[in-house]
Every structure is written in C-alpha cells, then in structure tokens.
From TrEMBL:
It comes from the Bacteria. One of its GO terms (molecular function) is threonine efflux transmembrane transporter activity. The chain crosses the membrane at residues 44-62, 74-94, 100-119, 126-143, 149-169, 181-205, 211-232, 239-260, 266-284. It comes from Rothia santali. Residues 149-278 form the EamA domain. GO terms for cellular component: plasma membrane. This is EamA family transporter. Belongs to the EamA transporter family. Pfam families: EamA. InterPro entries: EamA_dom, EmrE-like. Keywords: Membrane, Transmembrane, Transmembrane helix.
Length: 311
C-alpha cells in the first residue's frame, strides 16, 4: 500500500498542506544558502549541480525499474523533468538579480493560475483571490529593484511552476513501475542530464567544501521539496495544491527574518495572515470534499453489492 493510500480521505487536505509547508521550508532555506555559490559557480551551474545531487540521491533510494516504464510513463517523467529543470534554472537566475521574497512571490502566480482553473464556485474563487491579495501585500512594499531581466526570469519560473503543478499529479499516479518517488527520480535525472553542460562548467571552479553545501541544496532543497509537492498534488488536486503553494511567499518571508535578518513592512504581515486564512479554508474544503466523495463512493458500492445479491 502506497503512502497516499494509507492517509484517510478526510485527512488528505491537511496532509497536503503540511507536505507543502515542509517542501517550502526546505526549498526556501536552501535557496538562501545557494546564493553564496552564485559568484563563483553561476546560477545555472548551481542549478545543474543541485539537480545532479538530487538525482543521485533519489535514484539510490528509489532504484526505479525504468525498463518497465510504459510509453505513457516516459511521456510523464520526461515532461516533468523538462519543466522541473526549467523552473530550477529560471528561479536561480531570478534570485541572482532580484530579492528572494519578490522572486518567490512572482513565481507563485503560476500556481495561482492553476488554482483558478479548478474554480467551480464563487466561494472557491474568493479563496484564490484572497491568497493572491496576500501575495501582493507581501511583494508590493518590497519591490525596489529595477532589474527587468530578473523579473522576466521570475515570470518564466512562474510559467514553469504552472506546468510543474499540473504534471506533479501524473508522477504520483502512473503505473507501479513509475509511481511516486520512482517516477520522480527518473524525472530529476532527466533534468540533470539537460543541465549537464552547466554542471560540467561549474565543477572545475568548486572547492571540496562546496560539495557538502551542494549536496544539502540538492537533497533537501530539491529531492525532499519536490517529493513533498508531488505528494500534495496526489493527495488533493493540482488546483488545490496551487492554492497551497501560496504558502511559499510566507515561508520565504520567515526565512528572510530568521536567516537573513530581513524585517518586512506591516502590510506584508497582513498579507501573510490573509494567505494563511485562505490556505486554511481551502484545506478544510479539500478535506470535506474528499470525505464526501469517499462516502458517496462507498454508498454506491453498497447499493451495487445489494443488487448483485438480489440478482
């Protein structure tokens, strides 16, 4: 039985938001560490090394039987690997030019767009808009950079995050050979191969102590973070996970305070509260919907069983 199947339907929304929080903390804290390597190795070089170390770790843990992948499995893992590598590169290119909090905020707009796709009722749309308003409150007072190229890279990261959010669920629901961490490990390996020219260019400039930092960035900031994100999408839906990803700007703000000593304007903290409330509302609705769906499915099966006996 997979991890997803072990989690009761009524708790899947809560489990998903906890997974997103863990992944966001891992991602944002290691992103702050990664910036210390940009001057010598470059953003693309650090990105490639990050993908490489994450791929080695995930392949060693998952040991996927990739020769058993179906054509559909390969389509999913290759697409996910391409999107993940693009998001990785654009994110670091943006962080190298504009503040981390602003980059994360702009990137979240990709997940927000996915959240809007799943809107079925006005109330759901209000939750998504509330999360977006919170993001604007966080970003607005902090935007002081005029580096347009940095904003362009952040926008490309946002577009990649939209694709990443949509494809993450397919990684968790493929055939047994490619489901879960097995498919994820192959996807990250594909991304590492795509970024191998940048990785090869960065390695000659590394010192021995860099490898420990790169390993931390890859294993914690990518392997763990991406695994948590994929789990969240599998437990709920791309739309629900898209709203949960609004917690990323919150986490990046807290990381800035704790690790970098960066205090935010009062309006930004109001935005944090609004995002948390929106995320909590979506979590509750996800839990309720999953429980109702499970109950409805169970009742239909019971009716079918009774009719089968009578027949």
């Amino acid at each position: 039985m997979s991890l997803t199947e072990r989690i009761p339907h009524r708790h899947r929304g809560t489990a998903a938001v906890l997974a997103v929080l863990l992944g966001a903390t891992a991602l944002q804290s290691t992103a702050a560490l990664a910036t210390t390597l940009f001057e010598r190795l470059g953003p693309t070089g650090v990105s490639g090394l990050r993908m490489l170390t994450a791929a080695v770790f995930l392949l060693a843990v998952a040991r996927p039987a990739f020769w058993r992948f179906t054509r559909r499995d390969w389509a999913s893992v290759v697409s996910y690997g391409i999107v993940a590598s693009l998001m990785n590169v654009f994110f670091y290119l943006a962080v190298d030019r504009i503040p981390l909090g602003v980059t994360v905020t702009i990137e979240y707009l990709g997940a927000f767009a996915v959240a809007l796709i799943g809107v079925r009722r006005v109330r759901d749309g209000l939750f998504a808009v509330g999360a977006l308003a919170g993001v604007v409150m966080i970003a607005g007072p902090t935007v002081g950079s005029t580096d347009l190229l940095g904003y362009l890279f952040a926008a490309c990261a946002a577009a990649s995050l939209a694709g990443y959010t949509l494809l993450a669920g397919k990684i968790g629901t493929g055939t047994p050979a490619s489901s879960g961490i097995k498919g994820l490990s192959v996807s990250i390996a594909i991304g590492a191969i795509l970024l191998s020219p940048a990785t090869a260019g960065a390695i000659p400039h590394m010192v021995p102590s860099d490898w420990a930092l790169v390993a931390c960035i890859g294993v914690v900031g990518l392997a763990l973070a991406f695994s948590c994100d994929a789990l969240a999408v599998t437990l709920t839906s791309p739309a629900a996970a898209g709203v949960f990803f609004s917690l990323d700007p919150v986490v990046s703000s807290l990381v800035g305070i704790l690790l970098l000593g960066q205090l935010l304007p009062p309006l930004a903290y109001v935005g944090i509260g609004l995002i948390v409330l929106s995320g909590a509302a979506v979590t509750w609705r996800a839990n309720r919907s999953a429980a109702q769906l499970a109950a409805h499915t169970a009742s239909l099966r019971a009716v079918d069983a009774v009719e089968a006996r009578r027949g």
